[in-house]
Amino acid sequence: MLDFTWTAGEKKLARKVFDNAVQLELANFISEFKAKAIAVQNVEAIWHIKDWLDKREQEIDAEFDFRYSQIIRVFANLVHTGRLDLNELAGLAEEKVQAIKLISEL
Questions:
Q1: Would you say residue 1 has pLDDT above 60?
Q2: Boundaries of every domain in the chain
Q3: Beta bridge partners of residue 92, listed in sequence order
Q4: CA–CA distance, 60 with 33 (Å, rounded to integer)
């Protein structure tokens, strides 16, 4: 576990970046849900969507964990998957950005 000290400015930036990433993820999730819902032709398809919703809820909850003990990992995963650019983290201490970059490359 990485144990960094966070300044007030870094905390504010981390929250903003995190919230933006969550909003983008949820917007994509809603679009995907709408596409699935339009295709529903029978009850079986509804149960399939319900299962998918339950799974996605668990994935999103696990991925987006805003605790300072986890946020480096969260940002690294977002960078790794192309959903966050390191430039969006300008304002964080260099050691935090380097840790995010290093972990994202694993």
A1: no
A2: 8-104
A3: 90
A4: 14
